[in-house]
Amino acid sequence: MTEKKDRFEESFAKLKEVSEKISSEDTSLEDSIRYYEEGMKYYRECNEILKKAEQKIEIMDTGSDKEDQ
Length: 69
What we know:
Blueprint: H1 2-23, H2 29-68
Helix pairs in contact: 1-2
């Protein structure tokens, strides 16, 4: 679990860094496009990790509901 947490935190930090670069007035259009593509990669990584975590929570919650009955 720690590995996924570390991977999420690393990807999220990189996504934030790329976002700041895109927002910079010194960033050219070409660089902004490159940063956008890089940011989308990190976004997809973060989103995939969150989806998997959500699925695990739903499974645990469903199991908990069955135990309560």
